[in-house]
């Protein structure tokens, strides 16, 4: 009785609830891990299944359909694609160059634009914010863009025609502006100015090192856009003698293959058309186009979630 009188009335009940929670939490953690594991596997499984199909023999695929363990594997699809030889590797190198150079140009334009919008003392902040937001709703159109790129800038069939159309994204500007506003305190910038630093020195020495999560997030978005882009190559990079980007070249291979298959009767080459690995080649194209960017994603992963949540949710 004396022990009970020295304790508050509700304390024993709290301790019992705490013991019950500690007893149940491992079970819920196990269930949560299983659910997350199944969800992660459901995201990875389609890509693994595409790899399996790309390594399946075409005739086996026609007879047996799509199976996880086909009876006969084959690299015929990849051999058909690599028949282009050095042209394919040149196309891969061009796409890699466009992706790296375009990402750097995009980050330079987006970060400087967003930093200016994040400064409250910028006189034209409202106008340029409205200008960036307006382009998210209404674009200039394909015809004006084509006229500007070919007639005014004369960038047709140059590498810059693949870089400039995707270099400035309004969505990226808004995300980075919000990231600067929520991450960089005004006191840090004011203290740098008191030490004699100008706007560019403050931006390069203080703002950019602190903003690595947001920059990595925008850089990943930009890299994906440049790597998967084929439409700008179709518009501005149509010289038959020049090497096209990887995505556009894979699309040309698929079109040529479909043309041979559909017009086999007119051409009179049934055996050649029947031997073309149509379905497996499509899957092999997906693997070749996706695998490099998938391998690069883990390097951005630790910055990606933090940069995206800070830059968008808090805004």
TrEMBL record:
Looking up SUPFAM superfamilies in the UniProt record yields: MetI-like
Which keywords appear in this protein's UniProt record, sorted alphabetically?
A: Cell membrane, Membrane, Transmembrane, Transmembrane helix, Transport
> Transmembrane region positions?
27-53, 92-115, 127-147, 159-180, 200-227, 281-300
The UniProt record lists the ABC transmembrane type-1 domain at 92-289
Q: Which GO terms describe its cellular component?
A: plasma membrane
Please indicate if the UniProt record lists Cell cycle as a keyword. Answer: no
One Gene Ontology biological process: transmembrane transport
State what protein this is by name. Answer: Sugar ABC transporter permease
Originating organism: Paenibacillus solani
Q: What is the lineage of its organism?
A: Bacteria, Bacillati, Bacillota, Bacilli, Bacillales
Q: Which CDD domains match?
A: TM_PBP2 (cd06261)
């Amino acid at each position: 009785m004396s022990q009970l009188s020295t304790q508050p009335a509700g304390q024993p009940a709290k301790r019992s609830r705490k013991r019950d929670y500690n007893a149940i939490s491992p079970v819920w953690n196990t269930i949560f891990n299983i659910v997350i594991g199944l969800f992660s596997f459901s995201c990875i499984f389609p890509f693994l299944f595409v790899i399996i199909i790309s390594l399946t023999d075409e005739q086996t695929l026609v007879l047996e359909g799509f199976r996880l363990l086909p009876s006969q594997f084959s690299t015929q699809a990849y051999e058909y694609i690599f028949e282009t030889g050095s042209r394919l590797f040149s196309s891969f190198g061009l796409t890699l160059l466009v992706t790296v150079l375009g990402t750097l140009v995009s980050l330079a334009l987006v970060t400087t634009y967003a930093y200016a919008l994040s400064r409250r003392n910028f006189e034209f902040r409202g106008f340029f914010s409205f200008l960036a937001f307006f382009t998210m709703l209404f674009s200039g159109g394909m015809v004006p863009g084509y006229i500007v790129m070919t007639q005014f800038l004369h960038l047709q069939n140059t590498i810059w025609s693949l870089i400039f159309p995707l270099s400035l994204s309004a969505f990226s500007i808004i995300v980075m502006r919000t990231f600067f506003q929520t991450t960089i305190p005004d006191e840090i910038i004011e203290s740098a100015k008191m030490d004699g630093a100008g706007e560019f020195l403050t931006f390069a020495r203080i703002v950019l090192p602190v903003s690595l999560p947001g920059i990595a997030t925008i850089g990943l978005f930009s890299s994906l856009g440049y790597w998967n882009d084929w439409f700008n190559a179709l518009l501005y990079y149509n010289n038959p003698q020049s090497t096209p980007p990887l995505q556009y070249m894979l699309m040309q291979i698929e079109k040529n293959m479909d043309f041979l298959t559909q017009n086999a009767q007119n051409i009179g080459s049934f055996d050649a058309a029947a031997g073309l690995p149509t379905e497996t080649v499509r899957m092999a194209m997906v693997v070749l186009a996706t695998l490099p960017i998938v391998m690069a994603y883990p390097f951005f992963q630790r910055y990606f979630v933090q940069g995206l949540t800070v830059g968008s949710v808090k805004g």
